[in-house]
Amino acid sequence: MRVLLLSGLLxxxxxxxxxxxxxxxxxxxxxxxxxxxxxKHASTGGSTTISxxxxxxxxxxxxxxxxxxxFAGKTATVKSGHDGNFEATFAAEGKPFEVGVxxxxxxxxxxxxxxxxxxxxxxxxPFFVVSDFDDTLAVTDVxxxxxxxxxxxxxxxxxxxxVEGMPAFYRCLKEGKAARPGFALVSGSPVQYVGRVAxxxxxxxxxxxxxxxxxxxxxxxxxxxxxxxxxxxxxLPQKVVLVGDSGEHDPEVYGQIRDEFPGxxxxxYIRDAGNSGVATRFKDMVLFKHPSEAARDAAGKxxxxxxxxxxxxxxxxxxxxxxxxxAGQRPER
Length: 333
Known about the structure:
The protein is an alpha/beta fold. It has 9 helices and 15 strands.
């Protein structure tokens, strides 16, 4: 019965022709690196949330495809790897890349082309933000395996709950700067969910993100965040704000990055999502229950303005004291 159900969910009619998927990226005026994946048979959707998610996870990859990538008038031709992934780096020669949001395109003969954003940061940007996704921006309940599977397969960008207050916190980190900070999402969510994650972020009015998700497989169950964050810190000259949660390994990963790049990490914010009983995990980090706590700490560090924090998270006035009893009135019994 289960085999028949799965066969129905993954029916041949669920697949379309080949497609190039490009991932949004963050770059500098000197160099931009973009990545993507070539799908041999792209998913066409599905009638239910679980069928759409399963089809995303089981799309077949195109190995050895010749990918032509175009950015800022420059062209690079690369080959897709065994998992369909590809990467292209563009160096500005003579004239720097223009600061702001630019578009990158990628094409493969016989496949639907891909397009994505590249957020080119000014060298004067005060910092950039590296953020986790699950239980940091979206409620996934990773510490509860039953809830994790439910959120991974039975939820989508429309139904997965938001961690309330996080969009406002991130907008405050972005606003009020002469040069705008950038945002990079480094997450254990599978790369097949890049469209789902991007739609979730847009729906909830987060700032524009570069998306760096996990290449889903048995060899990427751990240690997948550090190489991506290291590459970002080597590519971007700004200092970094790290934001994650306590449910799994973000405190340990961020602590390791802080040790490897002394002076580059200006703040670490960890949302309390469980497994927070050992205080030593959060040494010199801010553990917060609600984003308002992180925002007020960030205001104190000069990472955002107090005015923005107060507007996003209005201070709660203390309750008015009870009126004093009339001295001549006898208390009720």
